[in-house]
């Protein structure tokens, strides 16, 4: 490290940023427990010197490391959940200094460190779990925004604190990043959420959804349409648009991913900080490790900062224990020595050589086993050749079968299989399977060779993303059925490795193949007379040929017989193998009806159909049983929780004033030697403190219940938007928000049904 120091307090993971709070020098900002923020750098003390009007308290804190810059502490008064820095507004008209964006469970603060003043403070009932600063897509006239992710919601604030952007997403937001995903020169918003989805927003429209296998804990733009992601199960990978370039999985959890050109070749490397303190840098295209380091504790965050004021950004890594290390990028003429100096190249070479050695030893062992089998076969032929010849001369006709039988028995011990052997796969629905209906994956060979084992790799189907099937020797055959239980509507690629060989063999040939599981494979086709009629539906006009709708159904569902769109109206009935809910798809020349009682499923079907047919705009009408009652109950609960919150806040404020008065009264009694009143004052103070603790617990429970209700409401709005496409979707979401703000329940229900107010 070219720079190293230690902060005085521990650092909250993923709450690390850097900004030019004085307009000139980079300053590191890290969130600490107890609602504090540590500022390290030349611009940290500007606010303390200028006074200012903010209620936030800046005070110096001594640092043990020699030669380190002063560390200033900013007291927030509540736990910090997200941290970011940047300039808001248009660069030509906004001040030069960056603002510090601080998120908590109930508010979002933009703090001007230079002037020690609040730029704006906004209540955030949905909470703040992630913040990113930048220009979003075609948002003209507003410049850079503070984009805040919370409880199923996204909000964009300008420099004055006006929410100029708002949208909803499927679950709690866990990470945000800005990336030129479409390659149009503007930024799209990448949103990772707790429902395992990465959604790409162009302004307030979702242009891409990528399903992962765990909570998306971190996102990072790399270069152009490339971005990196990290999951809560230890997976790190890189996408270029919707194509995954590579991924790796570790037993540790990635805390931060960051793009930095460490070897000065003009292409950034992916820097990953792990929960065990490991740091590694990987080639963005291949995932090959080019640098690594180790911290004694978990990494808290990774940023790039110019601490020396020479124009060179240093790769700066902060651990949860407060250790800060900064690394210089390697000069171009020393780039080739990067692997040697870190030991990565030698370790990789040793690992590669050991792997090659193991493969060669295994290959040699296979040759030896085959040679032994061939030698045994020749000896058996030699021992039986003379008697067989004698029997043939004597006119016996049964010897040929004996020779053939012995030859076959000997060949069974070898691993050779016919050269034309192939492995074929098929998918079908098995409603009679026990203990539950399933999708049956059949793997079969084209001859009598046996399948000894099958390894299936699939995301979101199995625990651990893989499944191994190896039947007992008594049940070996040329085919093998594997039950699949998909739980989500997502297209999945099944990667199979099949071990094939003769019966009784100890060595096998490995066949690799891939099969795609359709997006709605969890729905099994049923006869119209056996299907229930859903009460809910989505209806829309569709100016498309029925043949194209039939092609979409054939591509997204598992059907025993493909649907033909040439014979008049389409009427397809399905039932979910996971939940038993009914689904009906009906279409004729100019309209289509999706019958389901599940609003979320209806949105997924509309989104999939619009994407397949290339429909930019799609309006619809919808009706779902019980939706009006659910909305009324939800809005009433939210109003009740908000009233309770205000009442509890007022009671706690009154109690805080009483505490102040009792402390003064107790001190006066102590000075006067009036120990009777002193004891009484402290007794009242104890009782009041108990009441305050009880009120705080009630307020925390109220806040949790309010957050859950707001999440449910935001999810309904998001699902209502997914029933449409393009500008009709945007209009529905915006109108729903306006109706919620106006507490107009009737208008909200009408918008969900018809798409507009």
From TrEMBL:
Compositional bias segments (type: Low complexity): 377-395
Gene3D superfamilies associated with the record: YVTN repeat-like/Quinoprotein amine dehydrogenase
Domain BBS2 C-terminal helix bundle: 727-753
Domain BBS2 hairpin: 628-722
Positions of the UniProt region annotated as Disordered: 377-399
InterPro entries named among the record's database cross-references: Bardet-Biedl_syndrome_2_prot, BBS2_CtH_dom, BBS2_GAE_dom, BBS2_hp_dom, BBS2_Mid, BBS2_N, BBS2_pf_dom, WD40/YVTN_repeat-like_dom_sf
One Pfam family this sequence matches: BBS2_GAE
Domain BBS2 platform: 524-612
Domain BBS2 GAE: 437-520
Domain Ciliary BBSome complex subunit 2 N-terminal: 17-134
Residue stretches in coiled coil: none
Domain annotation Ciliary BBSome complex subunit 2 middle region: ranges: 175-282
Name listed for the protein in its UniProt record: Bardet-Biedl syndrome 2 protein homolog
Phylogenetic placement of the source organism: Eukaryota, Metazoa, Spiralia, Lophotrochozoa, Platyhelminthes
């Amino acid at each position: 490290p070219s720079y190293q120091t230690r902060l005085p307090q521990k650092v909250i993971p993923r709450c690390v940023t850097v900004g030019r709070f004085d307009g000139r020098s980079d300053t590191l900002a890290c969130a600490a427990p107890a609602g504090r923020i540590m500022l390290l750098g030349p611009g940290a003390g500007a606010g303390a010197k200028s006074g200012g009007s903010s209620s936030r308290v800046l005070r110096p804190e001594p640092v043990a490391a020699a030669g380190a810059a002063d560390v200033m502490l900013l007291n927030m008064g509540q736990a910090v959940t997200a941290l970011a820095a940047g300039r808001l507004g248009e660069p030509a008209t906004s001040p030069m200094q960056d603002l510090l964006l601080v998120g908590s469970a109930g508010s979002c603060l933009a703090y001007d460190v230079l002037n020690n003043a609040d730029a704006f403070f906004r209540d955030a009932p949905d909470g703040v779990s992630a913040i990113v600063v930048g220009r979003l897509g075609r948002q003209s006239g507003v410049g850079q925004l503070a984009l805040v992710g919370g409880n199923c919601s996204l909000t964009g604030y300008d420099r004055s604190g006006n929410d100029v952007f708002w949208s909803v997403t499927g679950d709690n937001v866990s990470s945000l990043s800005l990336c030129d995903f479409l390659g149009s020169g503007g930024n799209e918003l990448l949103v990772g959420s707790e429902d395992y989805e990465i959604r790409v927003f162009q302004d307030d429209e979702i242009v891409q959804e990528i399903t992962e296998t765990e909570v998306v804990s971190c996102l990072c733009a790399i270069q152009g349409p490339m971005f990196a992601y990290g999951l809560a199960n230890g997976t790190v990978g890189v996408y270029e648009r919707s194509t995954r370039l590579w991924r790796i999985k570790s037993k540790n959890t990635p805390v931060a991913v960051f793009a930095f050109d460490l070897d000065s070749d003009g292409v950034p490397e992916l820097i990953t900080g792990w929960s065990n303190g490991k740091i590694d840098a990987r080639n963005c295209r291949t995932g090959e490790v080019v640098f690594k380091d180790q911290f004694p504790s978990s990494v808290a965050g990774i940023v790039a900062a110019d601490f020396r004021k020479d124009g060179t950004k240093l790769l700066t890594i902060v651990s949860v224990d407060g250790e800060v290390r900064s690394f210089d990028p390697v000069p171009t003429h020393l780039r080739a020595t990067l692997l040697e100096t870190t030991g990565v190249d030698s370790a990789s070479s040793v690992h590669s050589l050991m792997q090659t050695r193991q493969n060669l030893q295994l290959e040699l062992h296979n040759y030896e086993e085959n040679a032994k089998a061939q030698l045994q076969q020749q000896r058996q032929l030699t021992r039986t050749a003379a008697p067989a010849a004698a029997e043939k001369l004597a006119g016996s006709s049964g010897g040929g079968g004996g020779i053939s039988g012995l030859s076959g028995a000997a060949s069974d011990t070898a691993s050779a299989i016919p050269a034309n052997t192939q492995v074929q796969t098929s998918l079908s629905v098995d409603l009679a399977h026990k203990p539950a209906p399933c999708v049956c994956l059949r793997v079969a060979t084209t001859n009598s060779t046996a399948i000894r084992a099958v390894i299936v790799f699939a995301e979101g189907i199995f625990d651990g993303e893989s499944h191994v099937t190896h039947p007992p020797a008594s049940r070996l055959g040329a085919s093998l059925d594997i039950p699949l239980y998909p739980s989500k509507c997502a297209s999945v690629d099944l990667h199979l490795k099949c071990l094939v060989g003769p019966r009784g063999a100890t060595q096998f040939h490995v066949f690799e193949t891939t099969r795609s599981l359709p997006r709605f494979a969890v729905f099994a086709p049923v006869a119209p007379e056996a299907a229930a009629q859903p009460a809910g539906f989505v209806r829309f006009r569709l100016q498309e040929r029925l043949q194209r709708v039939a092609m979409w159904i054939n591509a997204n569902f598992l059907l025993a017989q493909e649907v033909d769109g040439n014979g008049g109206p389409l009427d397809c009935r399905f039932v979910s193998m996971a939940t038993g809910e009914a689904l009906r798809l009906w279409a004729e020349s100019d309209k289509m009806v999706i019958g389901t009682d599940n609003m979320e499923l209806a949105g997924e079907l509309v989104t999939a159909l619009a994407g397949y047919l290339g429909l930019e705009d799609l309006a619809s009408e919808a009706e779902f049983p019980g939706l009006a009652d659910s909305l009324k109950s939800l809005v009433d609960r939210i109003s009740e929780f908000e009233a309770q919150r205000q009442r509890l806040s007022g009671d706690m404020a009154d109690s805080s004033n009483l505490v102040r008065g009792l402390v003064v009264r107790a001190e006066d009694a102590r000075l006067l030697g009036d120990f009777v009143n002193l004891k009484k004052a402290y007794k009242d103070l104890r009782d009041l403190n108990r009441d305050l603790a009880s009120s705080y617990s009630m307020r925390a429970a109220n806040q949790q219940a309010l957050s859950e209700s707001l999440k449910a409401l935001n999810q309904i709005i998001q699902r209502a938007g997914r029933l449409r496409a393009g500008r009709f979707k945007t209009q529905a979401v915006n109108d729903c928000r306006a109706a919620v703000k106006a507490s107009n329940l009737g208008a909200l229900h009408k918008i969900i049904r018809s798409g507009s107010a």
